Amino acid sequence: MKIVVHTGEAEQWQAALAEALPQATVLTSEAPADERKDADYLAIWKAPAHLLQEQTQLKGIINLGAGVDYLLKTPGLPSDVPIVKLRDAGMGELMADYALYGVLHFYRSMDRYLEQQQSATWKSQEVVEKNQWPVGVLGLGAIGSFVANALQQAGFPVLGWSRSPKQISGVDCFHGDDGLTELLGQVRSLITILPDTAATQHILNAERLAQLPQGASVINPGRGSLIDEQALLDALGSGNQSGHLRGALLDVFHEEPLPADNPLWQHPKVIVTPHMAAPTPLNDAIDQVISYLHAFESGEKLSTINPEAGY
Ligand code: NDP
User: Fold this and answer.
1) Cβ distance 135 to 191 under 8 Å?
2) Quick one: pLDDT at residue 80?
3) Where does ligand 1 bind, in terms of residues with CB under 6 Å?
4) What is the CATH number of domain 91-272?
5) Fewest CB atoms within 10 A around its CB: which of 89, 115, 118, 236?
6) What whole-number distance in Å separates Cα of residue 247 and Cα of residue 220?
């Protein structure tokens, strides 16, 4: 079995896979072209197109992350090779921390205290009960469902939305366009953990953002494409115009790194983080990749991605 790895930590991956699979040849994408070209498996994150195009006998592709948007846009991606992606692999917990931080930031008025600090204002803000702070989670997949459960366990009423109908204990689940409208009308904080697909592009446009209650906050660790950036800026308001939304915590953007002249950097109601919400934890991910390789080799049925749906 020959595996070629391409990711930021390729040497660590190479060493871990070689140790777990002593019969396998494990190369990084830095290996000479004639050595890497007849791989059985690619374990990759943001790989260059040539690495896919030069393969002749691939049996499987393992995406070393939860989002497959980059992979699906890579020219030369074979249509007849099964693709699996990391599912949770420790990212759910990291994402839940990020989401909980975001919700607490607004729920406990940290945004207002930061503003008050500018004028040395000593003033307590009202604390409502958590059951008065419904939180919406768009996307109830491997990571989204983890986040929904964590927020529910933290005491917030949680409303979730996915493509197909779902039942998650303690979470009020919605689907479809009407379901989204119903959810948006009720939540005080909204977390978007949807994949970037044709169907989710600008799913939060001006009309959808206006459906959120006055003073709601948006937390987006999903993908930048989910939100119409200009519509978000308009909804947040600027200068003397207070805007419909209270604030946003954003981890992902249309263009990354976020250009220095993007107004989101300077907006007083926005916190920008550099796509750091849930980096792939190496040990969990390696264990999952090894189990994928065993499953591929033994002909087990794997839950592959659906390229038409885009995730
Ligand atoms: P999954 O593929 O497991 O789940 C995706 C969820 O989105 C599913 O619940 C799915 O519905 C739902 N969905 C997809 N399309 C639609 C649609 N058109 N309408 C409604 N719901 C839809 O993904 P993960 O939970 O593993 O990850 C989600 C995303 O999080 C990734 O794609 C990535 O973009 C982002 N991410 C960001 C990170 C960061 O550091 N910022 C780190 C890791 C992930 P259904 O259940 O019905 O299929």
Assistant:
1) yes
2) 95
3) 66-67, 91, 139-144, 162-164, 193-197, 199-200, 221-223, 251-252, 275, 277-278, 311
4) 3.40.50.720
5) 118
6) 11
